[in-house]
Amino acid sequence: MSRVVRETDFPTLTLLQRGKVRDMYDLKDAYLMVATDRMSAFDVIMPDPIPDKGTVLTQISLYWFDIMASLIDNHVITADVSRYPESCRPYAADLAGRSILVKKARPLPIECVVRGYITGSGWKSYRKDGSVCGIRLPDGLVESDRLPEPIFTPSTKEELGKHDINIDFDEMVNRIGAPLARKLKDLSLAIYTKGAQIAEEKGILIADTKFEFGLVDDEVILIDEVLTPDSSRFWPKASYVPGGAQQSFDKQYLRDYLLSLDWDQTPPGPTLPQTVIDNTRAKYVEALTLLSGDSHGL
Question: Where in the numbering of this chain does the SAICAR synthetase/ADE2 N-terminal domain appear (predicted)?
Fold first, then answer.
């Protein structure tokens, strides 16, 4: 039976913030990060949640955090609810599977985007002037083409409800300094390359993705989520054909539905038909199962 958590309600815990998807609680020595079933598209939170989505995102992130530990440390303390502070125990049933106890990191103000294929805003930019975020690409690419090598295309990290803005690497250097910018670029490309290779072996092409990093005692660590259907474009390898849009395991399915409506992409979002909710959920669960080999009972 699917469990739906659109908004957490833990009155004895200190709510730090509600993001598009995650609710953060301050437990003094750590943060409690809870992935809800809220669905955002075009930076607008939809009125209808996607059942179990928060559990899928959490389990996929945990899978990748473990795999990427050889490349970079991360903010995970534990996802075992029985090891959470006593203050969390009354909410154990709601926290199980969809929450992580994390280190208190200082987030860096850059979205670290890596693109392995030309699609989305990158495709629009390429059609305009043959480049993406100041990076010149080969002539003759078609939509969804695999790039000769992955490219790093950072963006700003804007407040909830505002669109992130693509920037070039020089602007990233201006904002956070050259040494840190180079480190984030190198880490992002290494994580993407490793993840894309593993995912492809399991039948998923990761077209592009975004990472977030933070500082703990001046050490760069990986935070938030990693290579999930919310932060990435997941395409089925079996049906991949460059030259147009691709089928997906991510929320592109939902975006395509929304683009078919007479909606101006401003709040409030439209009510979603049950078939769209069910199909979106199925795509998320399928991605989790393919990657980890475990549906986690969903």
Answer: 16-266
